[in-house]
Amino acid sequence: MHDIGANIEALKAQIKHTATKRAFAGCVPAIVAVSKKQPADAIRAAYAAGVCDFGENYVQEALEKQRQLDDLPLVWHFIGPIQSNKTRLIAEHFDWVHSVDRLKIAQRLSYQRQPGARVAPANRALEQTENPLTETHNDASIASRAEALNICLQVNIDDDEAKAGVSTNQLMQLAGQVADLPNLRLRGLMIMPRQSSEQDKTRDSFRRGHELFEQARDFLGTRVTGFDTLSMGMSGDFELAIEEGASLLRLGTAIFGARIG
Questions:
Q1: CATH number 3.20.20.10 is the correct assignment for the domain at 2-253
Q2: 171-229 pLDDT, tens digit each
Q3: Regions in the chain scoring below 70 on pLDDT
């Protein structure tokens, strides 16, 4: 597990360095460690190295890890496809959901998220970090925010029929609808570009994702406080994502190495 700590330290330095090359102001992006298919001991090692936020794709796998790790103040992000029959478990056991792309799913999460059902640790890294995109900090109570389920809308940035996500031309409508739902707190967007070996194409997808984020923030205006999260960039492309405005990176292989199974 020593390599996990070393990987995280190297990543933090790399992320900080890359953030200085951005053409606009902003804080250093935060890390969500993608821990799917990783054992609980690996998560403990990452936590010992300073990572508090962990992303999971599969509900049952995540629940077992939460049981094994309930002595740690971890923040759990659901980042995988959402099935209707899993929304109650997600609403009850996660702090963030990055992959909302339909009103029906948002409505189910809203209905099934009871106030106070899960309160994220008050010392969580993402709540203590200033807004990475605007360099402002919302003064609302961390406790009250934690009671709501933090939501990112997954955007099909390349309008790829093979990918999940709300289409770019339907994003504003969905954002407005989700913003009005109780027990949810709309935080931002998740961008997953089409896989490409050409960096310019990936960069263009990230750039358009950042532009959409800013448009959505302007569209929502004062209806939403704390619309501050652009979840964008994984182990193979996070430097491009940082340069194009990411505030939250989803890193798995770069931290844990190849997944088991």
A1: yes
A2: 999 999 999 999 999 999 999 998 877 899 999 999 999 999 999 999 999 999 999 99
A3: 1-2, 23-25, 116-146, 259-261
Q: Could you give the angle at which helices 40-48 and 59-68 cross, rounded to 10 degrees?
A: 60
Q: What is the mean pLDDT of the chain?
A: 88
pTM for the whole structure? 0.89
**How many CB atoms within 10 Å of residue 68?**
14
Long-range contacts of 114-119 (CB under 8 A, 24+ apart): 114/183, 115/147, 115/148, 115/183, 116/147, 117/91, 117/92, 117/147, 118/92, 118/93, 118/94, 118/146, 119/143, 119/146, 119/147
